[in-house]
């Protein structure tokens, strides 16, 4: 009904309909592909002024029917990436930034050049006993205690992530005296210990936000968020910082450059 | 009402209640922390026989109230990680595997030792014209055409990911003749070109599954999934493989070891 007609390249209509997109693929599949392409373009900053082309232009550029384009835009709206208003058109809600997984960096460091990170310190205190599984990860006895931090991190005035951190007692106490509202914990750790951090093991989960997290991050209940576990070590290999971080997935993507090379021994 | 009482280490009750967990933190916050610890333990394979301790034991081990533990278990059930049945207790639904982001590897390669990957080939065909944004990423003219693959990938008899791939025409045609049901595209690419792949740029998004994806992956509508964009290059740097992959986030986490080092130039 509203399906585009395949046109040979250079046909007088000027519409380029890639053959792969108008075959027997069902509309949901094409909509997913269109959404993927647009998500990629949004993250890459292709829509400099924030305005997406209209449905008809998108359909022509991407070789998809109006219905598939509309379905794709619904998916992206549900993800919180775009907003659609009659008379205004379709706009990117917020830039989506890539946070590199190639190198260990604090959030403010990683966002240098993108915007200003500020931290709302919700909790910063010594604890006399660590939770058993956290103590195991930090390779200390629970009774050694430590420092507990919870910070809600803002980028350009909107919540970006909720960071929960346990630090070992020896390095944590110095960090408590630092500028937790203005600085990355990594930088504070390096300043107070006088040593560079070494490495970190990171595990990334995708989860839906519980209502409490959603309220703090100002996103809808059950929106998708990243949940990161990160265990950071000093350069001598000793673990000192066990973090659990929830990141708004509408504002940030994670990026990496991978090399083929050989399997690590 | 049902809040645990702080106990000094070694108290005769034998209950270890970490001080940091029973302070003024609201229950939702403690529930989130308990869920994080259990998710970490599930992913690390700590519950070898799949059975979690009962609520009371978890509360004691993690220093949280029964209500906070129950709320945490509800979060993990919503994520699809655990199942709770009266008389049976709480069990891990499926093992959750870590897929390393340290090295470029196909799924079957990465899952070696975990289980068997099989591929349901939904689409495998030449296309005479590439979608414009895909052609841009592959650095070819749209009219150069290419090969389109869509595969639903199964791990041990359950869907794990939905992979949509565009290959450049020169390398793609050889891959079409390969064993797409049994092999990774990476391996097929290396066999048909006679060269190792070089590197890939990966962008990871967390999104909620659209109904069509959810049905294919056999997960609830709007469950969180990873959406990966991956552009893979031959060892000479030429991009040949533009993929869009949706991965069930209840079955897989992404892992990386990051090093502090210096900022890449």
Structural write-up:
Two copies of one chain form a homodimer. Chain A has helices spanning 27-43, 55-62, 66-78, 107-110, 132-138, 169-176, 185-193, 211-217, and strands at 82-85, 89-92, 97-100, 117-127, 146-155, 158-168, 197-208, 224-234, 239-248, 252-259. In chain A, 28% of the residues lie in helices and 32% in strands. Chain A folds into two domains: 19-92, Orthogonal Bundle (Arc Repressor Mutant, subunit A); 97-255, Chorismate lyase (3-Layer(aba) Sandwich), CATH 3.40.1410. Chain A has a six-stranded antiparallel sheet with strand order 4-5-6-9-8-7. In chain A, strands 1-2 form a two-stranded antiparallel sheet. Chain A has 265 residues and is of the alpha+beta class. Chains A and B meet through α1, β4, α5, β7 and α8 of A and α1, β4, α5, β7 and α8 of B.
Structural class of chain A: alpha+beta
| Number of spatially distinct domains of chain A | 2
Shape of chain A: elongated
Oligomer classification: homodimer
For this entry, give a set of tags.
homodimer; alpha+beta; Chorismate lyase; 2 domains; 10 strands; disordered N terminus
